[in-house]
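This protein record is not my work; I was only asked to verify it. The record follows directly below this note.
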Amino acid sequence: MKIFSYVVIPIFILFAYWQLNDPDPYLWFPIYLFVAGMAAYRLKRTIPKKVLFPIVFAYSGFAIYHLIIAPYYAIEVEEYREGLGLLIS
């Protein structure tokens, strides 16, 4: 499963970099960089379930919130794209 971490780290660093051009990078840059950091941490140690489950629930809940507030479901809507990004995370 280390291969998965090696793939996830650069992808989410790139996602975080792309968020610097967003109107609210202070929110999305740390969210995506945190995922890359967790994948990097996972290369050396396992992530305890006490830490992992709250993070998964928080990201999932935030994704559902963004998908609900989207006025319609199309890739042109920023809330929809943000919700999808959180689901990928």
About this structure: The chain has a mean pLDDT of 89.
